Amino acid sequence: MRRFLLLILNEFKLARTAIPIHIVAMIEPVVMYVLLTVILVHPTFDVHVTRPTTEIGQALIAAMREIGSPIGLPYIHPVLVNITEPRDVRQVITIEEQNGRATAVQRYNLIDNNLVKNYRNRLTAAALRLWDMELGNRAVTIVERPTLPRDIPYNVYFGMAMLPLTAFLAAVTIGSVLTAQEFELHTILEYRLATAPLEWVLAARLTRLVLSALIAAGALLLAIGQINNYWPTAIGLVGLILLPVAIIAGCLGIIAGLLLRRTLPAFLVGLVSSFVAWILGDAFKPAVGFGGWYEIVSRFTPNTYAVELLLPRFYGIEIHATPVAALVLSLAAVGMITLTTLVYRRRFAAQ
Question: Which tens digit of pLDDT belongs to each residue from 87-96?
Fold first, then answer.
């Protein structure tokens, strides 16, 4: 056991040979999440409206204030202004008389198509609320029954879906680079001459990669909680869910390093595989919501199953049977360990 602990300690000392890779692998996801939370669309939009002077204008403002989630934030935050042109704001709505009818005119500043869509949707929602009020008893009544006690910001889901990415990225990139360096620096011969069994050397590296992945994911989880003031239930269980993801990624990184034996190609394999698995694996919303080929392809990534297991911890709901997802991840981790051991032995025998 003491020899095994020394092997793990040596693995952590090897971080000095690849400091930039460790920064990219363990810090970049947190920085990426923090930056994206600034530009991601929030539920509440500040909608600038020229101060109304008519009853219909005041009714429109009242309708805007009524629209929102019954368990969350309002959809619109009307801001009354004395301007009619959006020189210093993103958009402004004015109530004008056109062809004898009061018309809401929405003028935009320099914004992208996505923001135009969101602002237009909010004006449409307010107009529909006014229409429902005019219809009275003839209006269609929609009864909303929330499944959650309170609305959860999208930033929480986005961060939750990045947790498997973070664990995967840290394990696969660090594993691929450290393993490839052994061939470039010829230090793999030292492992071959060591008295420790090859399985111990491999187990020490995989243990170090898993610990690094969980540390990186823990940093992201801390950022999610601090930014959104929202924490999952059973944080320890979150780490347990990410454990097989880290094992799969660590094994993939070691295999890439063993086969390619060059730092840059091995690193690129890890980097590309991480983001492909993230994009295809419920990155922006559950794949079941897309359906079709996207949902089918997503079943071949560990991220999809990890997100399905994380959802009950963050949202208290299940979209698929969690025992099935746990079984798939566990079997995939065992399979990758077996494959990595075989490749490791063969590569050592070839030296």
Answer: 888 889 898 8
